[in-house]
Design brief:
The complex is a heterodimer of chains A (about 180) and B (about 120).
Chain A (H helix, E strand, L loop, with lengths): L9 E7 L3 E8 L3 E9 L4 H16 L3 E5 L10 H15 L4 E5 L1 H8 L7 H11 L1 H4 L17 H25 L1
Chain B lengths: L9 H8 L3 H8 L4 H8 L7 H11 L3 H4 L1 H23 L5 H16 L7
Helix pairs in contact in B: 2-3, 6-7
The chains are: A alpha/beta (about 180), B mainly alpha (about 120).
């Protein structure tokens, strides 16, 4: 048998950033059912964790996917690393599995040579989900521009898709 | 293990169309987007009028927009159909009751199907 059956029904992907976080909720094979950014000010980590807890309560995902901030070559700030840890603690206390992927794993999943910019990945995703993401695709960042907040959405969607693909591959392998 | 569907997918479809909650509220004939927010958060059930208006706005069947709710109702109907079919078994069979029984069995089996993804 060679059918791909995904074990996980709903995935919540979180992409924390300096301004807050981006999120994506994937359901079924690859239906993007919610996506967006949540801004956080003041105590950014506390507010971000609260947002994530709210989304977990609402969507009741089976898996939470995030970037692996401890991976080799990760240059995330101490605050975001701390936030990652706090989110993992929040998910484990609700019996939700957390899955982490490094930036390199994400790139390899989308580009054969493992080389690609954030913008080219975002473009790919906007083509994959035109109704949902095309309008959120930021223009190509110039060296003097700061990164668009909406780029966090694309990072979250990419993480969710990487998990989905890896999960599908495993399911296919098991059923072969 | 698969989780049940959400009661409705109004937020997904609204965002796909790029409409704000206030704009959808206006299309539904509601005063403000707060009502739409309550539908989207499952804090309020939609009336038949609202469900049909959503169908008109999002160009999707109401059973697709409110899939979780539809599945819940479908299951309840299926359970009642099963009961009714059992009651019919106790009656003397004739062409009319056997046709009804067949219909009820079909309704009952529809409720036990796997959820649509």
């Amino acid at each position: 048998m060679n059918h791909t059956r995904s074990k996980h029904h709903r995935i919540l992907a979180i992409a924390p950033s300096t301004r807050g976080l981006g999120f994506a909720v994937l359901e079924g094979k690859a239906n993007l059912i919610d996506w967006g950014v949540k801004s956080a000010d003041g105590d950014k980590n506390a507010r971000s964790v609260k947002s994530v807890e709210g989304m977990i309560a609402f969507y009741q995902p089976e898996v939470l996917v995030m970037e692996d901030h401890s991976a080799k070559g990760s240059r995330r700030s101490p605050r975001i690393r701390e936030l990652g840890q706090q989110i993992i603690i929040a998910t484990s206390s609700r019996n939700i599995r957390a899955k982490l992927f490094s930036r390199e794993q994400v790139r390899k999943a989308f580009f054969a040579d493992g080389q690609g910019t954030k913008h080219s990945l975002a473009k790919l995703l906007a083509e994959r989900f035109p109704k949902e993401l095309a309008s959120r695709l930021p223009r190509k960042r110039r060296p003097w521009d700061s990164e668009a907040h909406s780029m966090d959405i694309f990072e979250a969607v990419a993480l969710a898709l990487v998990f989905r693909r890896k999960n599908e591959k495993r399911a296919t392998f098991v059923s072969d | 293990m698969t989780l049940p569907h959400l009661p409705n997918y109004l937020r997904t479809h609204r965002k796909q169309l790029g409409l704000s909650q206030d704009e959808v509220a206006y299309l539904l004939g509601a005063v403000s987007g707060a009502k739409v927010s309550r539908y989207e958060r499952f804090a309020r059930g939609a009336s038949l009028e609202t469900a049909l208006a959503c169908e008109a706005i999002f160009k999707r069947q109401a059973s697709e927009l409110f899939v979780g709710l539809y599945q819940k109702i479908e299951k309840e109907v299926a359970a009642r159909a099963k009961t009714l079919a059992l009651r019919m078994d106790q009656q003397k069979p004739n062409p009319q009751t056997s046709r009804k029984r067949q219909t009820l069995i079909e309704i009952a089996s529809a409720g036990s199907k796997q959820p649509r993804s």
